[in-house]
Amino acid sequence: MRAIPRPQRWDSPFDPNMTDADVNRILSILPFSEMNPDDFPPSTPLHGILHNDTRIRRYQSGDIIVREGDYGDSAFFIISGAVRVVLDGLPASMLGRLEPKRKTFLQVLAQLWRNPKEPEVRHTSRDVDDSGVQARGDAGSATRIFLQNVPGVLDAHNTVQLETGAFFGEIAALGRVERTATIFAEGEVELLEVRWQGLRDIRRRNRTLKEHIDALYRERSLKTHLLATPMFQHLSEDEITEIANQTVFETYGDFDWHTSYQTLAGESAASRLAKEPIITEEGHYPNGVILIRSGFTRLSKQFGHGHRTKSYLGKGQHYGFDEIVHNWRRGNDGGNSAVPFQYSLRAVGYADVLIVPTPIIEKFVLGPDPENPRLPKELLPPPVAVDEATEENVQELTHPEVDEDMLELLVENRFINGTATMMINLDRCTRCDDCVRACAAAHDNNPRFIRHGPKVGNYMVANACMHCADPVCMIGCPTGAIHREVTGQVVINDATCIGCSTCANSCPYHNIRMVEVRGEDGDLILDQNTNAPILTATKCDLCIDQLGGPACQRACPHDALRRIDMQDGMKSLSDWINR
Q: What is the pTM of this model?
């Protein structure tokens, strides 16, 4: 055996070139100059956070700093200069993205004989000048997209200027949600980029910054989140504001869960469960409704010496309302009729939650009189069943249409992240390869999935892009080539992919591959500087340009293959299994 130092948080600083002089300069600027170093623990001092979790970025006029629709994991502070926020959106082509066009029936049919014989053939004359966007910088993370006609953008779009001293991007960074606006440099600008870990720690220790971020979230996003939840939709604007002011934000788990995903997959079920932080515990008092803001959670019930998974909850779902309503109906007098949380709720990898306290739910959502509730009666859940857990009861609590082993497989492997997870019924599958051939015909003679993967019973989850609800592959793409379409597909724009492998390295499921591309003559396309083959990222795009959707699914003659949306409480899966 060989002893090695235990890995530390700052073994990989955000910018290895960040110096003490840079940090001291930042500490001389508001609001950092007003932060008290004594408020930070020795393990994560303020100086250490700024040295290891930040980097100084310089942009030229027109450089796009963040793009609407990208997933963010960092925030920005303007050291000098100004940026412009585009409020009404820019065309996809101006953001380095693909503007898909569906092929006609004849074009789809012609693929059968017009496709090149060699795989991954590309047109070498990739010209994006007409879009008004170009790329500059070296390959890799230094490459950035810039707007060629800034005055034209200012004239044609509604924008707002942010100047020195302003923060932006912090809400997307903390919640790993989509950026809500495109922001570009107006003239030369110097920014301090803070990755989410450092922002979280500064926010935790500095009350002023915490209040600033929380106020922005309450103002911009929280009310929208509440109004999207049925139990709050009957309330007035003033009541929603009061609820928003009382709501508590909490984060559980590891934001970078995908980096340790493969390691955890090899551990025992008990070990993996022990590493999932508990949000609420079975048997405890229901202190509020937990709304899942982002990430995923596991709902489980104790049985014997372990736990059995009941279900999983993702963005937009909630837990605890049933218990609160049960107790409210019985006066919540603390007697035998009151029930605790019936299940434990754990973060699977990472979860960002909102907690609306029980008294607030009772006051605004339910009202003082159980006989005359404020919430429409059809939205009130039935009384909670409080029988002791037996093996039969636990089985009834799980999805009766979905095998318990299937549920465990989906949660343990994070396949619940998928909006188009490829499932194959091995009893129906005859290995005819029609699905593979159809995919190849739609994608330059190179199929975009591999027909193997983990199995449970007679079902297999195939190795294909799932078009995740939380697409970590999109974080860090320097040109915006990988992006989500408004229809939900996560796709890659060949014209702006620079082959940096960021997306492929980030995908925890290994569903993105780097391939050598060829010209129309079938020869490999080489880098003119290094003479090495040019690589491009490829993955399933759900046949975004094909009529009828995914060719693999349409080609299966035995209905053995189906793309399943795991975000609907497994209704799609259970409907397919029990069809």
A: 0.70
